[in-house]
Amino acid sequence: xxxxxxxxxxxxxxxxxxxxxxxxxxxxxxxxxxxxxxxxxxxxxxxxxxxxxxxxxxxxxxxxxxxxxxxxxxxxxxxxxxxxxxxxxxxxxxxxxxxxxxxxxxxxxxxxxxxxxxxxxxxxxxxxxxxxxxxxxxxxxxxxxxxxxxxxxxxxxxxxxxxxxxxxxxxxxxxxxxxxxxxxxxxxxxxxxxxxxxxxxxxxxxxxxxxxxxxxxxxxxxxxxxxxxxxxxxxxxxxxxxxxxxxxxxxxxxxxxxxxxxxxxxxxxxxxxxxxxxxxxxxxxxxxxxxxxxxxxxxxxx
Length: 302
What we know:
There is one protein chain. This protein is an alpha/beta fold. It folds into three domains: about 5-70, Winged helix-like DNA-binding domain superfamily/Winged helix DNA-binding domain (Arc Repressor Mutant, subunit A, Orthogonal Bundle), CATH 1.10.10.10; about 90-160 and about 270-295, D-Maltodextrin-Binding Protein, domain 2 (3-Layer(aba) Sandwich); about 165-270, D-Maltodextrin-Binding Protein, domain 2, CATH 3.40.190.290. About 35% of the residues lie in helices and about 25% in strands. It has helices spanning about 5-20, 20-30, 30-45, 60-85, 100-120, 175-180, 230-235, 245-255, 285-295; strands at about 50-55, 60, 95-100, 125-130, 145, 155-160, 165-170, 195, 205-210, 215-220, 225, 240-245, 260, 270, 275-280. Strands 7, 8, 11, 12, 13 and 14 form a six-stranded mixed beta sheet that branches. The chain has a five-stranded mixed beta sheet with strand order 4-3-5-15-6, with helices on one face. Helix 1 packs across helix 2 (about 20-30), helix 1 (about 5-20) packs across helix 3 and helix 2 (about 20-30) crosses helix 3 (about 30-45). The radius of gyration is 23 Å and the shape is elongated. It starts with 5 loop residues before the first helix and ends in a 7-residue tail after the last helix. The mean pLDDT is about 85.
């Protein structure tokens, strides 16, 4: 195995992650046929099939999945070590892949990224916004943004964005006129609620309310459930129910008079998000530059 080409291993990893020859080729800036040739050479050299491919899908075999799980971190270390050489050139370069909650992408991340890219013009950033609970590093991302500093072993967290945020409850004036004003979170049981549904979950997440040390959990029900904030806000403005979400999501509609805050004494306040990444000796130059950039940012309390 001493003469096994590293490029073929990298090609396999790219195809297995993307589950597509074309998508992997686009990311690598090569042709799909060249990746196919690399995979064929690798499978012949190893004597085992690594990917099942049909006209509709590409999926790892059991052997391929096991190889991917062990190979991805190793190739990441190789890329990180090579990335250290950037310090001897004109500055950090390469691609930084981030997986972030949609609220982060919507509310504060764009401004941070824009300023970072102006400071580091040779760095490219790929941002995937989703609310699923996934293994960010296992999925091939360099770092992720999540709430709550409960991290797995060998992970590092760096505060990013506002340090305090609030969850508020809102409905349209028309809905409140028709259905009445809830006076207590328990009243929501008799109301239509607009439910935010995570892709990784099959049931509605309970709404948590806090006041003077008292915490209540309410399971919302209603006509509308979605994993897109735009759909949820639109439904609330249309008078289809009550929504509960990040304060910054609804405030433009509140200020315009299309939504009204309710149950304001039951606002839930919580700590802001963190950028987290693997604790390892060699960090990709683009990630190191981004972490240093975030650490130098003044912390916003809200």
